[in-house]
Design brief:
flat; about 70 residues; binds zinc ion; 3-stranded antiparallel beta sheet; two-stranded antiparallel ribbon
């Protein structure tokens, strides 16, 4: 957590840019034997989700609909 001006911002663990908390999500990731909270921006969450859905073999149309619903 870093304070930039008056608004507290969090650093995205993936793209390393700073975002307000509402522009992303805290996510728990297992790290060895403990769970660690990381912040990810919506853009990175979307592209992760997209890759996951592509691996499941969904079409681009289906993927776009799911992503629109989950990350409006
Ligand atoms: Zn990011």
């Amino acid at each position: 957590m870093v304070e930039l001006g008056k608004v507290k911002k969090r650093k995205c663990n993936d793209c390393s840019e700073y975002f307000e908390e509402t522009q992303g999500k805290m996510t728990i990731l297992p790290d060895e034997n403990k769970l660690i909270w990381h912040f990810y921006c919506k853009k990175c969450l979307r592209s992760w989700r997209k890759r996951g859905l592509q691996n499941e073999g969904l079409s681009n149309i289906e993927i776009n609909e799911i992503i629109k619903r989950e990350y409006p």
